[in-house]
Amino acid sequence: xxxxxxxxxxxxxxxxxxxxxxxxxxxxxxxxxxxxxxxxxxxxxxxxxxxxxxxxxxxxxxxxxxxxxxxxxxxxxxxxxxxxxxxxxxxxxxxxxxxxxxxxxxxxxxxxxxxxxxxxxxxxxxxxxxxxxxxxxxxxxxxxxxxxxxxxxxxxxxxxxxxxxxxxxxxxxxxxxxxxxxxxxxxxxxxxxxxxxxxxxxxxxxxxxxxxxxxxxxxxxxxxxxxxxxxxxxxxxxxxxxxxxxxxxxxxxxxxxxxxxxxxxxxxxxxxxxxxxxxxxxxxxxxxxxxxxxxxxxxxxxxxxxxxxxxxxxxxxxxxxxxxxxxxxxxxxxxxxxxxxxxxxxxxxxxxxxxxxxxxxxxxxxxxxxxxxxxxxxxxxxxxxxxxxxxxxxxxxxxxxxxxxxxxxxxxxxxxxxxxxxxxxxxxxxxxxxxxxxxxxxxxxxxxxxxxxxxxxxxxxxxxxxxxxxxxxxxxxxxxxxxxxxxxxxxxxxxxxxxxxxxxxxxxxxxxxxxxxxxxxxxxxxxxxxxxxxxxxxxxxxxxxxxxxxxxxxxxxxxxxxxxxxxxxxxxxxxxxxxxxxxxxxxxxxxxxxxxxxxxxxxxxxxxxxxxxxxxxxxxxxxxxxxxxxxxxxxxxxxxxxxxxxxxxxxxxxxxxxxxxxxxxxxxxxxxxxxxxxxxxxxxxxxxxxxxxxxxxxxxxxxxxxxxxxxxxxxxxxxxxxxxxxxxxxxxxxxxxxxxxxxxxxxxxxxxxxxxxxxxxxxxxxxxxxxxxxxxxxxxxxxxxxxxxxxxxxxxxxxxxxxxxxxxxxxxxxxxxxxxxxxxxxxxxxxxxxxxxxxxxxxxxxxxxxxxxxxxxxxxxxxxxxxxxxxxxxxxxxxxxxxxxxxxxxxxxxxxxxxxxxxxxxxxxxxxxxxxxxxxxxxxxxxxxxxxxxxxxxxxxxxxxxxxx
Length: 949
Prior knowledge:
The protein is an alpha+beta fold. Among the domains are: 2-130 and 750-948, no CATH class; 213-257 and 274-377, no CATH class. Helices cover 47% and strands 9% of the residues. The chain has 29 helices and 18 strands. Strands 1, 2, 5, 6, 7, 8, 9, 10, 11, 12, 13, 14, 17 and 18 form a 14-stranded mixed sheet that branches. Strand 6 (586-592) and strand 7 (595-598) form a beta hairpin. Helix 3 crosses helix 5. The longest helix has 49 residues, at 352-400. The chain starts with 22 loop residues before the first helix and ends with a helix.
């Protein structure tokens, strides 16, 4: 098998691993894997409690794809059940989104009292026992509205209630904010030099707001001076000059030492660093010259005209601001220098001043750049606010002066609100769920522009309403009604505080709880005997859901695989978690019976199922990385009892809720596909399936001496409004706050293979049920890329020649290269000696056929103390032409089958059965044993897999 040992570039070591660290121990800590190994060994042999690595770990990854993936996975596992004994060889079941529907169904089935082992589960899957289980699943293919029109009306009423509620909370919050600005405006009008309304009428009917002065003021005193100060502060020449002087002094010192050794008289005195080291904190002559000239203009301006006077005043303000920023830098540098001198070591005194100067040389432009960015951001926000206030004022005035009719205005805002209602469908179509590709740049721009315009129009309308309270809904220009304004402001503030402190509203106003409830009743409740007499899934029933403490691990004598549930922690702004990347915009988090893992190196050991009578809340936990200097995501507090052990204080959710979060495909946060436009559209349409999870981790303040920032203060006073607006604006701080925004695991990795690569399973079976009608293999490519970048594992798919030498001849025709999995028109050819199908792809055609159902890849793990290689069996829903007649007929009427849109979550009987039967058909072809009376001791497709891997 020389072809399988072809030259492969050595995979990179994990970026997180420092010298001497084992990448395997970082990604899969020894204690975590020993606990999981105990579960696996005990599952294989109930009498065993060994922590040694089991032989030939087998893991299944079930991809996202909604009910399509769940139903295809069901059929595939039915095919496995028909072979007998194969289910018992699955050690890990890693699920994402729709794959989690079936994964939770299977795990919950294992936990039922009437199930005693794997054989019982196989009989249920084959419908030879408890046929009502699968009958319940089939009858509830429309799990979101199983009872037809009645459920649709109920769901519609709930969606409308949540949509109105969330917008009511935000409208009250924005109206209160605008009323506060109106009260401030009335107060400052008493200032003599303040511009009055009659001085602000510009461009005919456009009434400018006095707040337009604020962004101009920020630009004058901050933006322009900071840009100017950057060019006036150039310490490089001083630093280079100091470095050259010190180098010459060092050479002279070495020369003197050499001469002293040769017999010269006495050692030379050290150079005076105070003379040869230029201080880069000195104010440049240019700043002083500009200040002197400007002050001279200011003194002489009375003899000139009005325009020159204004120019001189403006120049004076700019120059003073420039010098002011320059002095701020100077003060900061002096403080740094003072601190450096206090911490100098005697033996390193000669070297540190130069290092300090180079540090300052880098610090000055970076600090000025940060200040400039902040000033630009503030001025931009103030400009938007001033424009909203100007347009709101103009709209109110024009409405009451009959320039705009109430009828036309009502129709306009009615259309805007209607568009907001359709934002849900627009956002869902754009995001496409976990299987969709990123929106193209022009499409993202269009979505962002449309969402911002829609939000801008709504805010202008709310601002116009605030002017009604100023003028008591009468003609403008009269004395402002401070009484009505004050009452409205106090009422709005009271309601905003009341809404803001009702934290449960954040998650209950989304569709996540209803979505999780429907999934729980349809998939977890399918094996609940109490449900078989009542097929309705609109009511909760005892025995459907399960606490994680009782779900993990399942009784060892039953042989259930370890179920790993994958979700995504969204992070689009710097959350200090050290895991966020701009491209990923989040990190994957997996829950298992021994705890949680996030990213590569962050782990929480929380044995959910050690004692089924003990609630894991408050349980003792262990956190990785262990080093105190490293940042830890799961930085749980110490126990109040002994001050040593860490205890879990996070929110305990049942199994059904985690499955719902794992399937939250359409939401404001979509991991690597998150964008401002899509988040705004999803938020305004209340397409929110994600959840703000209370992690229980409280981060200490970055600087205890400083007061809370404005955003942090708002989050304390108005937490509900702040978190909802963060969703709308795609601002997810990752793990920096106590509440983490969790969404579909496919927003990070959609195949479910990431956690199996972490565990270095010897055989990984990926069941890819995501929407991929063009067969671009985006989800698979993402897995291959992340496996290499995060774990140093290379996944290389076999060529036709390698497949001939590796795959058993009886199933060789089922396997092909990735290209042979594509659908299209093929010119089939024959290759002498090959057992597979071959052909030339003439044209990609969604209504066409493929040449194979599966592909095979070799996994080369990074060198360490773990396994060095393994296999990846990749199964794709394809049609090759030998399917049963009902599948052929269904495909004829539905050309997109088996990749119909993920948005379609309402499967009728024919659709549900077609996906189920296709999965079963492919499994029968892949795993059928030639020995009819004997169960193979290995996974059949790979020749002598155990000897090879």
